[in-house]
Amino acid sequence: MTSSPVSPNRCQGMRIAAILAVLAAIGAGAWMRADRGMPANATTNADADVRLVTTGSIEHRVTALGLVEPRTFVDVGTQVSGQLDRVHVAIGDTVAEGALLAEIDPAIYETRVRGDEAKLRNLEAQLAQARAERDLARLRDDRARRLFRSNALSRDEADTSAADLRIAAAKVDALLAQVSEARSTLDGDQANLGYTRILAPISGTVVSQTSVVGQTLNANQTSPIILRIADLATMTVRAQVTEADVVRIRTGQPVRFSTLSMPDRVWESRVRQVLPTPQTLNDVVLYDVLIDIANPDGALMTAMTAQVFFILDQAIDVPLVPLAALHDGADGRVVALRLPDGRTETRPVRIGLVDRGHAQVLAGLQPGDAVVIGPEPAMGGAPGTVGSWRSGGRPPAAAMARAAAPAP
Q1: Which residue range or ranges hold the CusB-like beta-barrel domain (predicted)?
Q2: How far is 345 from 387, CA to CA, in rounded Å?
Q3: Is residue 88 situated within a structural domain?
Q4: How far apart are CA 181 and CA 292, in angstroms?
């Protein structure tokens, strides 16, 4: 059994019927919108993501990484060579300035001091003898001059007496110089003996120890380090900033940072100094920026990693709109504003500071306004009027009708 072919007239009739059906649907939709007081080009996309314009703070900032270190620390070493005899502190101890930290074996230096003292006593005794001889020579010279004036003594004997006085005085002067030299040597050896007792140069905490008891320290070749004392009450963050950003960093600029171990705790301070000499790591030029911060509870520790935010500009308690709601319009930025009756309105806005998620609203929106997150709004209508929203759903009925119409 074979089916009869469809006639051309019948095909044309079916196409016209389809067009009429679409037009009827368009008319019904327009009637429903008119009945609800909605313009023909408005849409109500109930599935769109809607966010509210909120009030908050926003910042324009530069981000960098840094390390926490004590602002003040001293590597305590020894000025004399010898065997480390005792260490009176341990890592973590708090010490006051002038406290005894360690001792070098003093035997050699004590021996030197005793020898210097003996030598000095000997020279002082010789000096006393020389002074006595000088005084005797002066008396003899006075008597010789009196006898010479009375012609009781020859000139040769008078000249010899005067020369003996000058020799005695010169001997006294030479011994005075030797005594001064001996005293200087004694003072130096006494100082070295004192250096065998190593005292704390500052108040702080012992954070490391390099040398151990029994180790021989040679101060003639290097500067042996025994331990390090740091003042942990004030810490410094040494942040590394790229050359592209360092030109925007200034002394006194506000800074905010957190550490890797305490990401939820935020410290606030200001830039103390931008060091002028950079470092080059993997062909990247980095400048050190120093930030001081009080550390009364000791939460900040040496070598902690810090994420630093240099605040270039900020706005406090201003309207904020999600970046995903902003789109480029013909004359600037626009948003799709969700009206209370469910319609979507295209509205131009003027924005200020921008961060990763929000933008400051300077004009066009108020806190509490609802904006649609998603694809950009159609720009066919004038700004401020109700327009359609490209929701990615079914195309409008007019477009369907144009698609169903027969080709001319």
Answers
A1: 237-308
A2: 6
A3: no
A4: 49
The answer as to whether 100 is a domain residue is no
- Average pLDDT estimate for 297-312: 94
Separation between Cα atoms, residue 156 and residue 329, nearest integer Å: 124
pLDDT tens digits for range 165-204: 999 999 999 999 999 999 999 999 999 999 999 999 999 9
- 161 neighbors 148 (Cβ within 8 angstroms): no
The answer to whether 338 and 75 are in contact (CB under 8 A) is: no
DSSP string, 144-202: HHHHHHTTSS-HHHHHHHHHHHHHHHHHHHHHHHHHHHHHHHHHHHHHHHHHTEEE-SS
Whether the CB-CB separation of 208 and 112 falls below 8 Å is answered with: no
Residue 357 pLDDT level (bands cut at 50, 70, 90): confident
Would you say residue 224 lies in a domain? no
- In-domain check, residue 112: yes
Does residue 125 sit in helix, strand or coil?
A: helix
Whole-number Å distance between alpha carbons of 191 and 201: 16
Residue 398 tokens read as: 């007019």
Domain end among 253, 279, 313: 313
Do 334 and 376 share a domain, yes or no? yes
- What CATH number corresponds to the domain at position 273? 2.40.30.170
Residues spanned by the domain of 146: 106-195
How high is the mean pLDDT of the chain? 82
**Count of domains in the chain?**
3
Helix, strand, coil percentages in the chain from 3-state DSSP, rounded to 5: 30, 35, 35
Angle at 238 between CA 233 and CA 242, to 5 degrees: 160
User: Do 114 and 190 lie in a common domain?
Assistant: yes
| Dihedral in degrees, nearest 10, Cα atoms 342, 345, 348, 350 | 0
CATH number at residue 19: 2.40.420.20
**To which residue do tokens 């030029």 refer?**
285
* 356 pLDDT tier (thresholds 50, 70, 90): confident
Please check whether residues 282 and 360 belong to one and the same domain: no
CB 205 within 8 A of CB 227: no
Check if the beta carbon of residue 46 is closer than 8 Å to that of residue 374: no
